[in-house]
Amino acid sequence: MPDQSLPEAPTPVTRSTGARAPKTAAPAGGSSPQPASADSPAKDLTRRRLLGAAGASGLVLGTAGAAAGYAAAPAQATPLSSVGAGQAMFHVKHQPGITQGLQARGHLVAFDLAAGAGRKEAAALLRRWSETARRLMAGEAAAHDDTDVARDAGPSSLTVTFGFGSSFFTRTGLEKQRPVALDPLPAFSSDHLDATRSNGDLWVQIGADDALVAFHALRAIQKDAGSAAKVRWQMNGFNRTPGATAHPMTARNLMGQMDGTRNPKPEESDFDQRIFVPAHSGKDPAWMANGSYAVVRRIRMLLDDWEKLSLKAQEQVIGRRKADGAALSGGTETTEMDLEKTDANGDLVVPLNAHARITRPDQNGGAAMLRRPFSYHDGIDPDGTPDAGLLFVCWQADPLRGFVTVQRKLDRGDALSQYIRHESSGLFAVPGGAARGEYVGQRLLEA
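RE: above sequence
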C-alpha cells in the first residue's frame, strides 16, 4: 500500500442543530452513568473512533476489520445499516477520492474564478473549502449555515477532492508554477466536445455512499464559493451501493460489462510510480508532490445501438465474457488474457480490435491509469435516445504517458468506439493531501 500519514481519529461532535452522536446522559442525582449497552450511543462512539482510525490509511472501510477495496470495486460489501459509518480521512498523504473504492453517488463540479478574483481570493476559497471538506468527511455539520440535509446520517465514506485547471494559473498570476503536464490534451476522433462543459479553473470531485450526504457536501461547497467563483459545469453520477452484492465485485457500467478489471492495485510495487507525482520528480513543480493528474471525460454510451448487438457480438467488442468478466481466452476474471489463442478456424479468440486487448499496459508501453468513474443518466433526448454513459475519471502521475498514450491507441481501431462518444473533457492537477493545519493547495498559493 502507498504510505499514508496517520492522523488521529476525529472525535465525534454534536451538530449545532442537533446531535448526530449524542452522549450518554448521567442518571439523576449525579451518580455515574450506566455502562453502555451493545446498541447504546456510547458504544456507537467507540465504534466510530475505531472506524476513523482504520480509515487513516486513506482507504474507506465499511466495518471494523473489513478489507478495503480498490478503485474498480466497492469499498466493502457491508450490511446496509452500517454503510453510513464508513469514514475517509481528510489529512492524508494523497487527497481522498483517489484510492478509495467506488462510491455510490458522485458529483463532479468545475468552477471559474469570478472577474477580479485572483490569488488572494483563491487562497481564501481553498481555505474555506478544505475546512468544510474536513468537517463533513468527519460527519460534522458545516461551520456556517448548515442545511441539515445530512442530519441523522454518518459520514457515509464521503470524500472531497480538489484540483486546478490550466486556466487557474493565468487567473492567479502563477503561470511559472503551472505544470507542463497540464498542456492541452490532443484531439481524438471520438471527440464531440462541448466547451461549456469542459475544463475550468477549479475542479471538485465529491463521492459518498449516500445520496443525501453527497448532495449536502455539494451544496456546502457551492455556498462556500460565494462571490469568488461560479459553477462552470456540474455532472452527477452513481455506482452500485456497497452491500448490494453478496461479496465485493468489480463494478459494471451501463453496458452491463465489468469495468475496471485490470486497474492498477495499491499493493503493486509500481502503483505509486504510475499514479502519484514523486516528491522530487524533476519535471513537476514541488507543490505537486504526492499529487496526481485527473483526466475527466463525459462519455455518452450509445445504448440503443449497443443493446441491438447479440451477447456474443458484445463480448467480441470488449474481449471479455459479460457474465463474469473473464477474458474470451478462458479462465476467470483475473486470469491473464492469452492474446495468441486461436479457435478451430485459426481466428484469434480475443479480436485484434477488442477493447480489453487494446487498453492493456503491455500493448501500450506499460502505460496505465487508475480508472475511478461514475455512471450517469441525464434523461431522454428529444429523439427518444437515452443521455447516459460514463463520467470517466482516471488518475496518473503523467497524463501524456497514461491517458493520452492509451486513448491514441484506441483512436486507431477500438471496436468500442462506434458505441461511445466523448462529449466533454477536462484535465486537472490535483495536489497532495493537506497536512494538519494546512489547506489543499497552500504550498502553491502561499509559496
